[in-house]
Structure formats: C-alpha cells, structure tokens
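Could you help me review a protein record that somebody else here produced? This is what I was given.
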Amino acid sequence: MVIILNSQKHTILSGRGMSVVDEFGLVLENQHIATYIPVLRSALVFRVIERTNKDAEIFDYGPLPLTEGESLTSYDGVTAVVAEDGVIPSRAYTLYGRQFPLEDAYKETDMWWIPEDYRERVFHVHLYTTPAILRLDVQIPTNVTQGRFQRNQLDIGIHRDFGFARGHIEIVHFPEIIYGYRFGNDTNANFYTHARFVYGEYVVEIPRDPELIFNILTRKYPAHWVTMPIRTEEAKVREALLKVYGIEGFPLYGIHQKDRAIEEYKSLLERAKI
C-alpha cells in the first residue's frame, strides 16, 4: 500500500510579500537558495534559473534500498536480517549510508549523483518515508557520520538516542559527492517501507553581484536556506566543491562587516565557475 502524503505549504515572505518557495517547499524560478555548510562557515548561493521538472516534482520511488537476506545493525547489540526487499526489521538500522539506484541514470547505483560538468545543476530533495516514524540522517560523503554534540565530544545520528529526523529530510545534492541516506527502525515491528521524493532539478547560477550575496547571507534579501549536514572536516567535500564551483562558498559576515565581506566576495566571484 502506498500512502499519499499531504504536501504542506512552505512559504517564505520578504517585507514585500514575495514568495520564495512553492507548496512543495521548492524554490521558485528567479529566486535564490543559500546552502550553508557549517564546517566551512560558508554558504553557496544560487539563483534558480529554471526548474526542469516543473509540474512533475513527485517521484514515488518505492521501497527503501534494503535487500532480502542482508544483515543490519541492531539497537540491541546483535544483528537483524532483512526478511524481504524493502522491509526494515524491528530494532534495526543501516550502519552505512545507502544510495537510491535508478536504471539509466548517469550513475545507475545512485540516482542523485552527477559529474562536475553538470555544475549548472543541483537537486533540491525532500525525502518522505513510509512509515513516518523511521529515523533518518544523511552521511556526506557516504560513510562519514556528520552529527555532533558538544563540539566533537559525541557523534550522533540514527545510531544514537538523538540527532536524527523522522519521516522527512531535506537536502541539496551537489555534483561529484556521494551522499549516504541512513534509516532506522526503533520499534518492535517489521515495516514495509516506501520512499517518496519531492524534488527540483534546478538550473542555477551564482549571482555575480557581491552586494546581493551579502544581503542574502545577512538575511536582508529573501532566499530559501538549507543547512547541510556537513559538520566535520572532510577533504572529499572540499575537493568536490573546488572542482565543481571553483570556490567552497561565501563566508558569513556580520551586518557591520559589509566592506570586508564585499571585498572577499569580489575575489571569490573571480574564481567561481558558474
């Protein structure tokens, strides 16, 4: 049985009442998205030129990528076996992140992966799972758990008692990075699962006006913000961002640091590839 999820309307308004996102929580054409990367204390800012899948934003993917017979880690210190494809056992979770295979995609083992020469594209993805009680987190890159508590005192996520989402997660996929989605079932029942993606495939550009970027990053100009779960130093992420965009992002400055910010943003824009 497929459960149809009711879309909740997400609206972000500026002082003039300008909408930034639509009823799916996806950015409208000619609006901006800021993707904040905590470990870099920087954000990549994009203007959405086009949403190539306009009016076709919902993809009912099907069961989660769980294979009959595979062993999962158990919250009870043992192992749990997947009884059939797409069924998550009770008290079990995926220790390592999973990708979503898709036939004929650029990388058939990972539908969201795209290469550096797709740099004008990003995927803005909302994943909804059935049942909605499942624990969710994302490893970026895959197999690197990013949740942290008290600096680096404790790593958190679906394998802990906190540090995860349930039933819904929002993420932006950059080219050249393999993301790993993790799922956890902390109940005493086995569940048939279903994944629904509500997504936008955006054609984007980095705004060339440093003052506009400053106004977006100081929240004086409307944009949709997504905080990426990248909280620990990871060379693969830095390498991919530099390879794809020529920069790692735009550092955040206080509103009183405008002159300093504008100068740095001008310099970064000279290296930006889109």
In short: Residues 1-16 have pLDDT under 50 and may be disordered. The radius of gyration is 19 Å. DSSP finds three helices and 18 strands in the chain.
